[in-house]
Design a protein that fits this description.
Blueprint: E1 3-7, E2 10-12, E3 18-25, E4 33-39, E5 46-51, E6 57-59, E7 67-72, E8 77-82, E9 91-99, E10 102-105, E11 109-113
Parallel strand pairs: 2-11
Antiparallel strand pairs: 1-3, 3-8, 4-5, 4-9, 5-6, 7-8, 9-10, 9-11
């Protein structure tokens, strides 16, 4: 059974940092494209950052220079380091793994940025 389990969310003040982790089980994550998406109330789910199986990365314009995605294939883990967080970053963050026509999603972790 494939599982993607996110962790690391929470409440943080503006300007603060959080580190989200996604641990994959049931798949070899190194051969999957991995990504982080987020969904705020009333909004559609949007791409935050992604990394291909070959190691390329791309980011939403709104997070460039603040967020960094990385992967540890030995641990089947993908990490999203989030710095300089702002209230507009508040959302549920989801981990996604996809390869060809196969897509898996985690259940999400809540990130709230508020003073």
């Amino acid at each position: 059974q494939v599982q993607l389990v996110e962790s690391g969310g929470g409440l943080v003040q503006p300007g603060g940092s959080l580190r989200l982790s996604c641990v994959a089980s049931g798949i070899i994550s190194s051969i999957y494209n991995m990504g982080w998406y987020r969904q705020a109330p009333g909004n559609e789910r949007e791409l935050v950052a992604a990394t291909t199986s070959g190691g390329s990365t791309n980011y939403a314009d709104s997070v460039k220079g603040r967020f960094t995605i990385s992967r540890d294939n030995a641990k089947n883990t993908v990490v999203l380091q989030m710095n300089s967080l702002q209230p507009e970053d508040t959302a549920v963050y989801f981990c996604k793994a996809n390869r060809f026509y196969i897509t898996y999603w985690g259940r999400g972790t809540q990130v709230t940025v508020s003073s």
